[in-house]
Amino acid sequence: xxxxxxxxxxxxxxxxxxxxxxxxxxxxxxxxxxxxxxxxxxxxxxxxxxxxxxxxxxxxxxxxxxxxxxxxxxxxxxxxxxxxxxxxxxxxxxxxxxxxxxxxxxxxxxxxxxxxxxxxxxxxxxxxxxxxxxxxxxxxxxxxxxxxxxxxxxxxxxxxxxxxxxxxxxxxxxxxxxxxxxxxxxxxxxxxxxxxxxxxxxxxxxxxxxxxxxxxxxxxxxxxxxxxxxxxxxxxxxxxxxxxxxxxxxxxxxxxxxxxxxxxxxxxxxxxxxxxxxxxxxxxxxxxxxxxxxxxxxxxxxxxxxxxxxxxxxxxxxxxxxxxxxxxxxxxxxxxxxxxxxxxxxxxxxxxx
Length: 353
Prior knowledge:
By secondary structure, the protein is α/β, with parallel strands linked by helices. The protein has 16 helices and seven strands. Strand 1, helix 5 and strand 2 form a beta-alpha-beta unit.
């Protein structure tokens, strides 16, 4: 048992009246102890549950991310031969269960347009056990789970797209996954994962989905503490970075070297004749079939969702001057077969370790 960790646990677990928040340094130390298993299973479970009830503060979340930076995998992104900064797409690790995700199509569209993309996640995960990104990619013929970190770096450099796979690339964090099932709730790690960047540089663009409005303010404060000035927050489908078609998308844009840097943006799908019901996720097999149709500019209504998201991200990442142009280019990239060619390029990569 770690006596130091016990003190951290006592500090946050003493109740409403006497409990205290951890400092950034204490949160980083506590997270390192969990990742390195210096804390006991009982201590780790108690910490994650108490922190879930208490809710993390921005300094605590920044400290937890500091520990991830210290112990986790890091991609070299400063000297890549691309015209745009790397975009890191943060999406819930426990996947999707109700609505069809198009995050993989968005990533392919961006990479086709010259915007390098980094994604990250693991396998089916508590408490939701939804469809994870890694399974979707495997269904499309790309198995990121077999890549070493060196190969993941090479794939990013060659194709403009890669994936950090938790079980293989960050085993210390992956060994904390079973606690999610044991405590029956999403721990603060689930919030951390939405804004984590497995890149060495801070000269990147981080996109984070969220569900509850207070989370957005937490993200903003944490990014500020950590020196990230280029980020996007999206109240997306099931907390992902996928835009909904059934409602107005609530989006936060933070841009470096602009005053004021923060802008609230409301995106109405009806303004572009793309409003409708969100596409239902029925099964992984059906989704893969729909995505394969999208790659040849067929398979409505998923095609409309893919164009809507692709258009927004092409604009947001600086490829297009406005949303309307972005939508036109997203459709053109799909109908021309260039996005399908990008998928084939990634599939043809040498995946031998």
